[in-house]
Design brief:
Radius of gyration: 19 Å
Number of domains: 1
Structural class: mainly alpha
Mean pLDDT: 80
Order of helices and strands: HHHHHEHHHHHHEHH
CATH superfamily: NCX, central ion-binding region
CATH architecture: Up-down Bundle
Number of strands: 2
Length: 316
Protein backbone atom coordinates (compact mmCIF):
# COMPACT_ATOMS: atom_id res chain seq x y z
CA UNK A 1 0.00 0.00 0.00
CA UNK A 2 2.82 2.41 0.92
CA UNK A 3 4.44 1.51 -2.41
CA UNK A 4 1.25 2.46 -4.28
CA UNK A 5 1.07 5.83 -2.49
CA UNK A 6 4.72 6.53 -3.33
CA UNK A 7 4.12 5.56 -6.97
CA UNK A 8 1.05 7.81 -7.03
CA UNK A 9 3.02 10.83 -5.79
CA UNK A 10 5.98 10.19 -8.11
CA UNK A 11 3.71 9.61 -11.12
CA UNK A 12 1.81 12.81 -10.37
CA UNK A 13 5.07 14.77 -10.19
CA UNK A 14 6.33 13.40 -13.51
CA UNK A 15 2.91 13.92 -15.13
CA UNK A 16 2.93 17.64 -14.30
CA UNK A 17 6.62 18.14 -15.15
CA UNK A 18 6.44 16.29 -18.46
CA UNK A 19 3.23 18.14 -19.39
CA UNK A 20 5.03 21.46 -19.12
CA UNK A 21 7.97 20.16 -21.19
CA UNK A 22 5.60 18.70 -23.79
CA UNK A 23 3.72 21.99 -24.29
CA UNK A 24 6.88 24.09 -24.49
CA UNK A 25 8.68 21.72 -26.89
CA UNK A 26 5.73 21.34 -29.25
CA UNK A 27 5.24 25.11 -29.32
CA UNK A 28 8.89 25.74 -30.23
CA UNK A 29 8.81 23.08 -32.95
CA UNK A 30 5.64 24.54 -34.43
CA UNK A 31 7.23 27.99 -34.53
CA UNK A 32 10.37 26.65 -36.20
CA UNK A 33 8.28 24.88 -38.86
CA UNK A 34 6.57 28.14 -39.73
CA UNK A 35 3.25 27.45 -38.03
CA UNK A 36 1.46 30.72 -37.33
CA UNK A 37 1.47 32.21 -33.86
CA UNK A 38 -2.32 31.99 -33.99
CA UNK A 39 -2.19 28.18 -34.09
CA UNK A 40 0.56 28.04 -31.47
CA UNK A 41 -1.36 30.35 -29.17
CA UNK A 42 -4.54 28.41 -29.76
CA UNK A 43 -2.78 25.24 -28.60
CA UNK A 44 -1.34 26.95 -25.54
CA UNK A 45 -4.61 28.54 -24.53
CA UNK A 46 -6.71 25.44 -25.20
CA UNK A 47 -4.73 22.55 -23.73
CA UNK A 48 -1.52 24.00 -22.30
CA UNK A 49 -2.41 23.90 -18.62
CA UNK A 50 -4.96 21.07 -19.01
CA UNK A 51 -2.44 18.54 -20.34
CA UNK A 52 -2.11 16.60 -17.03
CA UNK A 53 -5.90 16.19 -16.78
CA UNK A 54 -6.10 15.25 -20.47
CA UNK A 55 -3.52 12.44 -20.40
CA UNK A 56 -4.67 11.02 -17.07
CA UNK A 57 -8.30 11.11 -18.31
CA UNK A 58 -7.43 9.26 -21.54
CA UNK A 59 -5.62 6.49 -19.65
CA UNK A 60 -8.33 6.31 -16.98
CA UNK A 61 -10.99 6.02 -19.68
CA UNK A 62 -9.09 3.25 -21.46
CA UNK A 63 -8.84 1.37 -18.15
CA UNK A 64 -12.57 1.96 -17.48
CA UNK A 65 -11.88 4.24 -14.49
CA UNK A 66 -14.71 6.69 -15.19
CA UNK A 67 -15.08 7.94 -11.57
CA UNK A 68 -11.39 8.88 -11.58
CA UNK A 69 -11.94 10.97 -14.72
CA UNK A 70 -14.95 12.88 -13.41
CA UNK A 71 -13.37 13.32 -9.96
CA UNK A 72 -10.23 14.84 -11.46
CA UNK A 73 -12.21 17.21 -13.71
CA UNK A 74 -14.50 18.40 -10.91
CA UNK A 75 -11.59 18.72 -8.50
CA UNK A 76 -9.56 20.70 -11.05
CA UNK A 77 -12.41 23.08 -11.89
CA UNK A 78 -13.18 23.82 -8.25
CA UNK A 79 -9.47 24.24 -7.49
CA UNK A 80 -9.02 26.63 -10.45
CA UNK A 81 -11.67 29.08 -9.27
CA UNK A 82 -11.82 28.56 -5.50
CA UNK A 83 -8.17 27.90 -4.66
CA UNK A 84 -5.99 29.34 -7.44
CA UNK A 85 -8.09 32.41 -8.25
CA UNK A 86 -8.59 32.87 -4.52
CA UNK A 87 -4.82 33.02 -4.04
CA UNK A 88 -4.39 35.36 -7.02
CA UNK A 89 -6.67 37.93 -5.38
CA UNK A 90 -3.97 38.43 -2.73
CA UNK A 91 -1.24 38.89 -5.38
CA UNK A 92 -2.94 41.56 -7.50
CA UNK A 93 -3.59 45.15 -6.48
CA UNK A 94 -6.72 45.56 -8.59
CA UNK A 95 -8.63 43.53 -11.19
CA UNK A 96 -10.68 45.71 -13.52
CA UNK A 97 -13.78 44.71 -15.45
CA UNK A 98 -12.96 42.79 -18.62
CA UNK A 99 -15.57 42.01 -21.29
CA UNK A 100 -13.60 39.01 -22.58
CA UNK A 101 -13.63 37.44 -19.12
CA UNK A 102 -17.38 38.03 -18.78
CA UNK A 103 -17.88 36.38 -22.17
CA UNK A 104 -15.78 33.38 -21.07
CA UNK A 105 -17.79 33.10 -17.86
CA UNK A 106 -21.05 33.10 -19.82
CA UNK A 107 -19.67 30.31 -21.99
CA UNK A 108 -18.67 28.42 -18.83
CA UNK A 109 -22.28 28.66 -17.61
CA UNK A 110 -23.39 27.16 -20.94
CA UNK A 111 -20.89 24.31 -20.55
CA UNK A 112 -22.07 23.57 -17.00
CA UNK A 113 -25.70 23.65 -18.18
CA UNK A 114 -24.92 21.10 -20.91
CA UNK A 115 -23.06 18.97 -18.36
CA UNK A 116 -26.16 19.08 -16.15
CA UNK A 117 -28.40 17.99 -19.05
CA UNK A 118 -26.02 15.20 -20.06
CA UNK A 119 -25.83 14.02 -16.42
CA UNK A 120 -29.58 13.56 -15.93
CA UNK A 121 -29.32 9.85 -16.77
CA UNK A 122 -26.16 9.58 -14.61
CA UNK A 123 -24.06 8.79 -17.65
CA UNK A 124 -21.92 10.70 -20.17
CA UNK A 125 -22.32 8.66 -23.36
CA UNK A 126 -20.01 8.41 -26.37
CA UNK A 127 -22.40 10.59 -28.38
CA UNK A 128 -22.46 13.26 -25.67
CA UNK A 129 -18.66 13.15 -25.55
CA UNK A 130 -18.49 13.83 -29.28
CA UNK A 131 -20.97 16.70 -28.84
CA UNK A 132 -18.62 18.25 -26.27
CA UNK A 133 -15.70 17.93 -28.70
CA UNK A 134 -17.71 19.74 -31.38
CA UNK A 135 -18.37 22.50 -28.86
CA UNK A 136 -14.59 22.73 -28.36
CA UNK A 137 -14.13 23.60 -32.05
CA UNK A 138 -16.66 26.42 -31.76
CA UNK A 139 -15.05 27.65 -28.53
CA UNK A 140 -11.59 27.87 -30.09
CA UNK A 141 -12.93 29.70 -33.14
CA UNK A 142 -14.94 32.12 -31.00
CA UNK A 143 -12.03 32.79 -28.63
CA UNK A 144 -9.69 34.05 -31.33
CA UNK A 145 -12.36 35.73 -33.41
CA UNK A 146 -13.07 38.10 -30.51
CA UNK A 147 -9.47 39.20 -29.93
CA UNK A 148 -8.94 42.79 -31.09
CA UNK A 149 -5.15 42.38 -31.06
CA UNK A 150 -4.50 38.63 -31.44
CA UNK A 151 -0.75 39.07 -32.08
CA UNK A 152 -0.20 40.92 -28.81
CA UNK A 153 -2.54 38.54 -26.97
CA UNK A 154 -0.63 35.47 -28.14
CA UNK A 155 2.75 37.10 -27.56
CA UNK A 156 1.81 37.64 -23.92
CA UNK A 157 0.66 34.04 -23.53
CA UNK A 158 3.97 32.80 -24.88
CA UNK A 159 5.90 35.18 -22.62
CA UNK A 160 3.98 34.16 -19.50
CA UNK A 161 4.76 30.51 -20.11
CA UNK A 162 8.46 31.24 -20.42
CA UNK A 163 8.86 30.12 -24.03
CA UNK A 164 11.92 31.96 -25.28
CA UNK A 165 12.08 32.85 -28.98
CA UNK A 166 15.87 32.58 -29.09
CA UNK A 167 15.56 28.82 -28.39
CA UNK A 168 13.25 28.06 -31.34
CA UNK A 169 16.16 27.41 -33.74
CA UNK A 170 17.34 24.41 -31.73
CA UNK A 171 14.96 21.91 -33.35
CA UNK A 172 16.84 18.68 -32.61
CA UNK A 173 16.74 19.32 -28.89
CA UNK A 174 13.08 20.27 -29.10
CA UNK A 175 12.17 17.06 -30.95
CA UNK A 176 14.12 15.06 -28.38
CA UNK A 177 12.34 16.79 -25.51
CA UNK A 178 8.98 16.28 -27.24
CA UNK A 179 9.49 12.52 -27.60
CA UNK A 180 10.86 12.12 -24.07
CA UNK A 181 8.07 14.18 -22.51
CA UNK A 182 5.42 12.26 -24.46
CA UNK A 183 6.82 8.92 -23.29
CA UNK A 184 7.00 10.15 -19.69
CA UNK A 185 3.47 11.55 -19.97
CA UNK A 186 2.04 8.23 -21.12
CA UNK A 187 3.84 6.11 -18.54
CA UNK A 188 3.27 8.53 -15.63
CA UNK A 189 -0.43 8.72 -16.51
CA UNK A 190 -0.59 4.91 -16.67
CA UNK A 191 1.04 4.46 -13.26
CA UNK A 192 -0.97 7.33 -11.80
CA UNK A 193 -4.26 5.71 -12.81
CA UNK A 194 -3.30 2.19 -11.69
CA UNK A 195 -1.86 3.30 -8.33
CA UNK A 196 -4.86 5.57 -7.71
CA UNK A 197 -7.15 2.59 -8.22
CA UNK A 198 -5.11 0.49 -5.80
CA UNK A 199 -5.11 3.22 -3.14
CA UNK A 200 -8.87 3.67 -3.51
CA UNK A 201 -9.48 -0.07 -3.12
CA UNK A 202 -7.21 -0.31 -0.08
CA UNK A 203 -8.92 2.51 1.82
CA UNK A 204 -12.37 1.48 0.64
CA UNK A 205 -13.13 4.85 -0.98
CA UNK A 206 -14.24 5.63 -4.50
CA UNK A 207 -11.66 6.35 -7.18
CA UNK A 208 -13.61 9.56 -7.74
CA UNK A 209 -12.40 10.91 -4.38
CA UNK A 210 -8.85 10.00 -5.35
CA UNK A 211 -9.42 11.91 -8.59
CA UNK A 212 -10.53 14.99 -6.64
CA UNK A 213 -7.39 14.83 -4.50
CA UNK A 214 -5.22 14.22 -7.59
CA UNK A 215 -6.56 17.49 -9.00
CA UNK A 216 -4.58 19.37 -6.35
CA UNK A 217 -1.46 18.15 -8.14
CA UNK A 218 -2.67 18.36 -11.74
CA UNK A 219 -3.65 22.03 -11.30
CA UNK A 220 -0.03 22.99 -10.55
CA UNK A 221 0.41 24.25 -14.17
CA UNK A 222 -2.53 26.63 -13.70
CA UNK A 223 -1.05 27.80 -10.39
CA UNK A 224 2.33 28.39 -12.02
CA UNK A 225 0.83 30.36 -14.92
CA UNK A 226 -1.29 32.38 -12.48
CA UNK A 227 1.75 33.40 -10.42
CA UNK A 228 3.71 34.33 -13.56
CA UNK A 229 0.77 36.30 -14.98
CA UNK A 230 0.33 38.13 -11.67
CA UNK A 231 4.02 39.06 -11.56
CA UNK A 232 3.90 40.37 -15.15
CA UNK A 233 0.53 42.07 -14.49
CA UNK A 234 -1.20 40.21 -17.32
CA UNK A 235 -4.56 40.20 -15.56
CA UNK A 236 -6.58 39.08 -18.58
CA UNK A 237 -4.37 36.03 -19.06
CA UNK A 238 -4.52 35.26 -15.36
CA UNK A 239 -8.30 35.03 -15.14
CA UNK A 240 -8.78 33.94 -18.74
CA UNK A 241 -6.51 30.93 -18.27
CA UNK A 242 -8.36 29.78 -15.16
CA UNK A 243 -11.83 30.15 -16.68
CA UNK A 244 -10.63 28.77 -20.02
CA UNK A 245 -9.08 25.77 -18.29
CA UNK A 246 -12.42 25.04 -16.60
CA UNK A 247 -14.13 25.13 -20.00
CA UNK A 248 -11.51 22.93 -21.67
CA UNK A 249 -11.56 20.42 -18.81
CA UNK A 250 -15.21 19.71 -19.61
CA UNK A 251 -15.45 20.03 -23.39
CA UNK A 252 -12.02 18.55 -24.24
CA UNK A 253 -10.92 16.33 -21.34
CA UNK A 254 -14.35 14.95 -20.44
CA UNK A 255 -15.42 15.03 -24.09
CA UNK A 256 -12.48 12.93 -25.25
CA UNK A 257 -12.59 10.56 -22.27
CA UNK A 258 -16.32 9.86 -22.67
CA UNK A 259 -15.91 9.41 -26.43
CA UNK A 260 -13.40 6.65 -25.70
CA UNK A 261 -15.60 5.05 -23.04
CA UNK A 262 -18.95 6.11 -21.53
CA UNK A 263 -18.61 7.49 -18.00
CA UNK A 264 -21.01 6.45 -15.24
CA UNK A 265 -21.84 9.18 -12.71
CA UNK A 266 -23.15 9.20 -9.14
CA UNK A 267 -25.99 11.31 -7.72
CA UNK A 268 -23.43 13.68 -6.16
CA UNK A 269 -22.68 15.08 -9.62
CA UNK A 270 -25.62 17.48 -9.27
CA UNK A 271 -24.24 18.92 -6.01
CA UNK A 272 -20.82 19.28 -7.62
CA UNK A 273 -22.18 21.00 -10.73
CA UNK A 274 -24.02 23.34 -8.34
CA UNK A 275 -20.77 24.17 -6.51
CA UNK A 276 -18.90 24.80 -9.77
CA UNK A 277 -21.74 27.01 -11.04
CA UNK A 278 -21.84 28.94 -7.76
CA UNK A 279 -18.12 29.68 -7.99
CA UNK A 280 -18.48 30.89 -11.59
CA UNK A 281 -21.42 33.07 -10.52
CA UNK A 282 -19.39 34.64 -7.69
CA UNK A 283 -16.61 35.52 -10.12
CA UNK A 284 -19.16 36.97 -12.54
CA UNK A 285 -20.64 39.15 -9.78
CA UNK A 286 -17.14 40.21 -8.78
CA UNK A 287 -16.40 41.56 -12.27
CA UNK A 288 -19.78 43.22 -12.77
CA UNK A 289 -19.95 45.15 -9.47
CA UNK A 290 -18.09 48.42 -8.97
CA UNK A 291 -17.66 48.09 -5.20
CA UNK A 292 -15.81 44.93 -4.27
CA UNK A 293 -13.35 43.61 -1.72
CA UNK A 294 -10.74 41.39 -3.37
CA UNK A 295 -9.22 39.97 -0.20
CA UNK A 296 -12.63 39.22 1.29
CA UNK A 297 -13.57 37.27 -1.84
CA UNK A 298 -10.18 35.54 -1.72
CA UNK A 299 -10.81 34.31 1.82
CA UNK A 300 -14.33 33.27 0.83
CA UNK A 301 -13.18 31.27 -2.20
CA UNK A 302 -10.46 29.45 -0.28
CA UNK A 303 -13.01 28.71 2.45
CA UNK A 304 -15.38 27.24 -0.15
CA UNK A 305 -12.56 25.05 -1.45
CA UNK A 306 -11.87 23.67 2.03
CA UNK A 307 -15.60 22.99 2.51
CA UNK A 308 -15.70 21.29 -0.90
CA UNK A 309 -12.91 18.89 0.08
CA UNK A 310 -14.66 18.10 3.37
CA UNK A 311 -17.93 17.52 1.50
CA UNK A 312 -16.24 15.12 -0.92
CA UNK A 313 -15.02 13.02 2.01
CA UNK A 314 -18.50 13.03 3.56
CA UNK A 315 -20.23 12.08 0.29
CA UNK A 316 -17.95 9.08 -0.33
Amino acid sequence: MIVDIIILIIALFFLVASSNLFVNSSSKIAKNLGVSELIIGLTLVAIGTSTPELFSAILASIYKQGPLVIGNIIGANVANIAFIFGISLFLIVYLKKNEDILHELKFLFLVYFLLLIFSLDLKISNFEGMALLLLLIYYLFDTFRRKKKPEEYLKRHIKVRGIKKEMWFNNIKNYLFLVISLIVLIFSAKYLVSSAGNVANYFGVSSKLIGVLMAIGTTFPELSVTIQAARKRYMGILVGDLVGSCIVNVILVLGLASTISSIILSNTIFIEIGIMSLLAFLIYLFFTHKTRNQKLLGYGLIGIYILFLILEFILV
